[in-house]
Design goal:
Length: 193
């Protein structure tokens, strides 16, 4: 997992509400157990026509989306079924953060465990971002702040353990493996009694 301390990027805006995980990555692409290559299938039913050709008007197919690492989405992003493939696809496409006024709990947890930063902000800041696609923002995970183009700082929260893992580029297993010596010492102490 890549450590996240700061992200500076232009935004891609998808303002639709209730974008569910089956729209993010359709079920037919869930047969893989690897993360690589899923970015090509991100929003596949919206990005491609029946013949598999890119639909030029779809936001991710437009030149301005290339290299953007921040997705601004409508309310209730990531609702629907639990699938880790959804954050995997977003990450593989190149996104590092998703900003919304509401992010579904299971999607948020899957994102945090896989290195995608889900950010919930207030309605006013969100409305400005939606109205200004391509705006350059700066995200500072160390201070839990999103800096808007005008310099305004918008606070957000991330659960402490998830924040630690993101800042240090480790998942839950990596966190435990870093403490292997302490775990072994504890086990040795408790087996003697």
């Amino acid at each position: 997992m890549q450590a996240i301390k700061t992200i500076r990027s232009c935004t891609v805006v998808m303002p639709a509400t209730n974008i569910d995980t089956d729209q993010i990555i359709p079920g037919r692409f869930l047969t893989t157990t690897t993360k690589q290559g899923l970015g090509a299938q991100l929003f596949a039913d919206w990005r491609y026509d029946a013949d598999g050709k890119a639909i030029p008007s779809f936001v991710l197919n437009q030149p301005a989306a290339k290299g953007c690492r921040v997705l601004v989405a409508g309310r209730n992003f990531g609702c629907g079924s639990s699938r880790e493939h959804a954050p995997w696809a977003l990450l593989d496409f190149g996104f590092q953060a998703v900003i919304s006024t509401e992010i579904a709990d299971i999607f948020r947890n899957n994102s945090l465990k896989n290195g995608l930063l889900p950010i919930v902000i207030d309605e006013q800041a969100h409305a400005w971002l939606v109205a200004n696609p391509g705006a350059e923002v700066s995200i500072d995970l160390q201070s839990n702040a999103l800096t808007m183009p005008n310099g305004e700082r918008v606070s957000f929260t991330v659960e402490a353990f998830a924040r630690y893992c993101l800042l240090n580029g480790v998942d839950e297993m990596g966190f435990l493996l870093q403490r292997d010596d302490a775990i072994a010492a504890y086990e040795a102490r408790t087996q003697r009694t």
